[in-house]
Amino acid sequence: MLTEVHVPDDVSAAVRLLAGGATAIGGGTCVLPWLNDYASPPTELVSLRRAGLSGIRLHGDTVEIGAATTLAQVEHDDRLEDLNAVVRSIASTPVRNLATVGGNLFARQPHGDLAVALVALDARVTLVDETGSRELPVEELTNGAGLVTTVTFELPRPGTFRYVKAARRRYNSASLVTVAATVTEEEGTVTGARIALGGVGPRVIRAHAVEAALVGQELTADTVRAAGEAGRGEIEPADDAYASAWYRTRVFPVHLRRALLGH
Amino acid sequence: MPVRIVNLKVNGVDQAFMAKPETTLLLALREQLGLTGAKRGCAQGACGSCTVLLDGAPVVSCLVPAATVDGSAVATVEGLADGQELSDVQQAFIDGFATQCGFCTPGMIMSAEALLARNPDPTADEVNEAISGNVCRCTGYAPIVSAILDAARRRRDRAGQEATR
């Protein structure tokens, strides 16, 4: 049961409250469902709605998104074309108007598709706690690391970012397999690849083996199939209401191929 | 347990009420303000029967602690009609038999109102996307989509008539 909902006006007040043991919420779309049964902890919340953490800024090609920016704000920002489609694949409009970018980083799999994309984009977070602030790659973020205030990344070069989310329905369904990739090529050869996977593990998975299998190769049906085989060793899918682990393992290479080759 | 006063502008009228920490926006609307159009379905943000407009944007009000939206404007299905005259969306739902049990209808209508405010001429697929967070367990989706497209047409026709007047 809830004993208090704090709505601090700035980050330092929020950090103080969090240090006292309260739980942060952005839009509340992950935490409130747990609380609505009146039984689950936590009991004290800190809403970041008024803490001055909302907004999207571009400095050249560097994108800085405040942690309390809603998914809907990202969805409708023309400057973030690659992320518009990512966000539209998450939940529904009435949820995206509440859910935040910072909150999505802590959404449990098979949710959290924006976090998958942000790992592929090599995004970093700024974390604040009572000792000060520091930066961390999204990939290394863990629960309790501190208050995420901003997410920062470089806009990918046109055509280098790929994203596919397979789900039971076209709209508003959790991930079966999500593939986000940033792939650079020179004269037909892959020179760099950052590949992140959702829906196929207890957390966002950085697919190092897939990346290693692709670098130095041309993107063809054969090389992508081989990369998919390499990736089978690093996914850890589970059974849930959406699909079995067996199914996810079976179709993972298909969606990797669709992300990388477009068919 | 701390109780605080929350101020909202609901359907254009200033309202103030006492909110406990666990008072959600949905609970406040239904039990403090007597506006029972928005429904408590799943209380998980998954069914959309509690959809209202918060500062113009549709949200699942079951997931919003009331204390976090102090000072905001809220629109509910009760505020759509102009006296006895229903809104285009409401009238199109009646004319198109787009309600069965009616439980999802207020949420569907608020999602539709938000869509038409942003996009006066949506395709059927855009309607599907806009109501993808609203579950109808009578599964009467086809007449709902038709009614929303019909409401869009009525609204465009009226705008056209007013422009030529």
TrEMBL record, chain A:
The record's annotation in PANTHER family points to: XANTHINE DEHYDROGENASE SUBUNIT C-RELATED
One Pfam annotation reads FAD_binding_5
Q: Does the keyword Heme apply?
A: no
> Does the UniProt entry include the keyword Protease?
no
Looking at the record, the residues that make up the FAD-binding PCMH-type domain are 1-158
- Which one of the record's GO molecular function terms can you name? oxidoreductase activity
- Entries under SMART domains matching the protein: CO_deh_flav_C
Originating organism: Asanoa hainanensis
Which PROSITE patterns does the entry mention? FAD_PCMH
What SUPFAM superfamilies has UniProt attached to this entry? CO dehydrogenase flavoprotein C-terminal domain-like, FAD-binding/transporter-associated domain-like
UniProt name for this protein: CO or xanthine dehydrogenase, FAD-binding subunit
Q: Which UniProt keywords apply?
A: FAD, Flavoprotein, Oxidoreductase
From TrEMBL, chain B:
- The name on file for this protein is Carbon-monoxide dehydrogenase small subunit
Keyword Protease applies? no
Q: Name one GO molecular function term.
A: 2 iron, 2 sulfur cluster binding
Species annotation: Asanoa hainanensis
Q: Which UniProt keywords apply?
A: 2Fe-2S, Iron, Iron-sulfur, Metal-binding, Oxidoreductase
User: Which InterPro entries does the entry mention?
Assistant: 2Fe-2S-bd, 2Fe-2S-bd_dom_sf, 2Fe-2S_ferredoxin-like_sf, 2Fe-2S_ferredoxin-type, 2Fe2S_fd_BS, Beta-grasp_dom_sf, Diverse_Oxidoreductases
The 2Fe-2S ferredoxin-type domain covers: 4-80
Q: Which domain of life is it from?
A: Bacteria
Signal peptide extent = none
Q: Does the keyword Mitochondrion apply?
A: no
